């Protein structure tokens, strides 16, 4: 089926890009592994659509696709949350840095004044 | 001990000549300033006359704030310390920077003061007095709500309510910029917020550390400049969101 071929091609490209970024040390090993797992899972569900139905049964949800969408949403929300926390941390670090520079420069200034 | 006795004497002296400063060299004013070129120059010229030590923190202003502060600092090098945030980080962050710098220069009492000229200089002494006489660790100069324009009054009432709800502290004015701190308590205060939310966080830390709090009434000078900034509805909403998020930390 066309969509299966498409998904597999996209997944391979995505993994290839991730691998290149990893080799160029732009992404960490953890991110790379997570990314690869995500796309492999997607390939499995595409090639073997019944597998999502099994998962749906386990969770008591009727359709296989629903399970995928629910998990995808939860996963996406989790990622957003993580990003949020990270961003906040970066903001705080930036403030610390700006503060450090400000105070160091001021200290230097007042030392020069005393001379 | 002798120094605190000294302070009391000084405080008593200053009772006699109300408008003169306490003369205590360890009282530091911290003034966070963001785009305050209109008001800051005048304010600083007036403040140095009272012989206060002043830490000005230019919070990455886009206007001439830094240059104005610098030119005045050149005239009064021993009284003014000037910090520059290379990037704008918010009033809370700037205040904290100023406090740290004041501590480095040996501050015993730190008074925060808004750069826009909304506070009356005479009120500094009111705030300082409660600290020097050891009545309080932290003093909030509260602006009487009856003096405020309607929109500000509503926003500040909401902020007071939120501060009460989240931090269980009832204060008359949770967003006032004129506050005094005993320098010893500053390192205990744990402030995350960079913006106006920091003001409420300071209030929370007062409660958490069981600090002695005193509220003194101060006058507020409302001009078009002082109206433009501060706690309006949008800032209030942002602080609210931040407080909700902090719960999940």
UniProtKB/TrEMBL annotation, chain A:
Name it.
DUF2304 domain-containing protein
Sequence intervals crossing the membrane: 6-22, 29-48, 68-85
Classification via Pfam families: DUF2304 (PF10066)
Q: Which domain of life is it from?
A: Archaea
The alphabetical list of record keywords is: Membrane, Transmembrane, Transmembrane helix
For this protein's source organism, the top of the classification is:
Archaea, Methanobacteriati, Methanobacteriota, Methanomada group, Methanobacteria
Q: Which organism is it from?
A: Methanobrevibacter filiformis
From TrEMBL, chain B:
Q: Name one GO molecular function term.
A: undecaprenyl-phosphate mannosyltransferase activity
Keywords noted in UniProt: Glycosyltransferase, Transferase
| GO BP, sorted A to Z | protein N-linked glycosylation
Do the record's keywords include Electron transport? no
Ranges for the Glycosyltransferase 2-like domain? 29-157
Q: What is its EC number?
A: 2.4.1.54
Keyword Glycosyltransferase attached: yes
Q: What is this protein called?
A: Undecaprenyl-phosphate mannosyltransferase
